[in-house]
Design goal:
InterPro entries: DUF674. The chain is built from three helices and two strands. It is mainly alpha-helical. A two-stranded antiparallel ribbon has the order 1-2.
Length: 92
Amino acid sequence: MNTGAAGVSSSSNGFVQGVVTYTVMDDMTVFPMSSISSITMLNTFAVRDLGVLREKTVQLGHTEGLAILRASLQSKTVLSDVFLARRHARLA
């Protein structure tokens, strides 16, 4: 399967047909992002005040990829362990 710069398969045999945005959860569960899935997620986690939520953009390079792989073998909170723990370590 040949993928282009946007990660879109040029073959009809791929998993993604077009540009799709995904949500990756802390336990590494991946699902396509949509309004319905976002509302369902808010209900699942009993979020009542949207003001407590924050978006976090992270850089994903070789070092981070290895850290995610290592954490995924040891933890159920992979993304928090890799990206939030590193931030707290820098602040300490």
